[in-house]
């Protein structure tokens, strides 16, 4: 999404975590990796730093307060949302479904993790501007918006998504506004959220 926004042409190659292609550019088999000229950069933070330094730094605020807010939001995403919401709920649900557990069993197993996840999303919601500002850090579009959006798209799409929607009115409003952007629309096909939405429509 960031490259689309910055007007940078690129070739996207799909790779699953821990696939041979993922290991080709990252010794830990993680995604994404970013290939530019003779460099292969992995880890999202390093990719962001590289794009800022070599391509364009327009997504990193010059204003200190806004830059700190952006860094805080990205840190919260990495330290709390990924661990307790994405992995704590979405990945566990996937595992339980593959194990053949019933929906009632899954709900019971996710009961306590969901409480933790909801508390975290409520905390994020308190940090989202609720006074008509368009982006997570205020009036400026930043890396925080592009990094948060795909995660929240997936979280709102799972069965527990209704719990997250109910507890995050500010975050949800930001999400719906951002969802209409060109960058979000062009990168939505093939995502977890896209797959889940298609499953729901076939039920």
Question: Which helices and strands, and how do they pair?
Answer:
Layout: H1 2-6, H2 20-25, E1 33-36, E2 39-42, H3 44-55, H4 64-98, H5 103-127, H6 143-157, H7 161-166, H8 169-179, H9 182-187, H10 192-202
Antiparallel strand pairs: 1-2
InterPro entries: Glutathione-S-Trfase_C-like, Glutathione-S-Trfase_C_sf, Glutathione_S-Trfase, Glutathione_S-Trfase_N, GST_C, GST_Omega/HSP26, Thioredoxin-like_sf
Family: Belongs to the GST superfamily.
Pfam families: GST_C (PF00043), GST_N (PF02798)
Can you walk me through this structure?
- Belongs to the GST superfamily.
- The protein has helices at 2-6, 20-25, 44-55, 64-98, 103-127, 143-157, 161-166, 169-179, 182-187, 192-202; strands spanning 33-36, 39-42.
- The radius of gyration is 18 Å and the shape is globular.
- The longest helix has 35 residues, at 64-98.
- With 203 residues, the chain is mainly α.
- Helix 4 packs antiparallel against helix 5 (103-127) and helix 4 (64-98) packs parallel to helix 6.
- A two-stranded antiparallel ribbon has the order 1-2.
- It has 2 domains: 2-55, no CATH class; 64-202, Glutathione S-transferase Yfyf (Class Pi), Chain A, domain 2, CATH 1.20.1050.
- Helix content is 65%, strand content 4%.
């Amino acid at each position: 999404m960031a490259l689309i926004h910055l007007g940078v042409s690129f070739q996207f190659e799909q790779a699953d975590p821990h696939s041979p292609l993922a290991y080709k550019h990252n010794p830990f088999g993680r995604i994404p990796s970013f290939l530019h000229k003779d460099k292969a950069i992995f880890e999202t933070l390093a990719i962001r730093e590289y794009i800022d330094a070599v391509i364009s730094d327009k997504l990193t605020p010059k204003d200190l307060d806004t830059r700190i807010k952006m860094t805080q939001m990205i840190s919260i995403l990495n330290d709390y949302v990924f661990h307790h919401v994405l992995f704590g709920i979405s990945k566990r649900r996937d595992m339980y479904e593959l194990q053949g557990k019933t929906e009632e069993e899954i709900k019971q197993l996710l009961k306590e993790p969901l409480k933790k996840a909801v508390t975290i999303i409520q905390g994020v919601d308190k940090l989202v501007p609720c006074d008509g500002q368009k982006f997570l850090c205020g009036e400026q579009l930043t890396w925080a918006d592009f990094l948060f959006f795909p995660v929240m798209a997936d979280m709102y799409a799972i069965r527990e998504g209704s719990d997250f929607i109910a507890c995050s009115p500010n975050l949800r409003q930001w999400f719906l506004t951002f969802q209409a952007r060109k960058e979000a629309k062009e990168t939505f096909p093939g995502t977890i959220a896209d797959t889940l939405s298609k499953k729901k429509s076939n039920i």
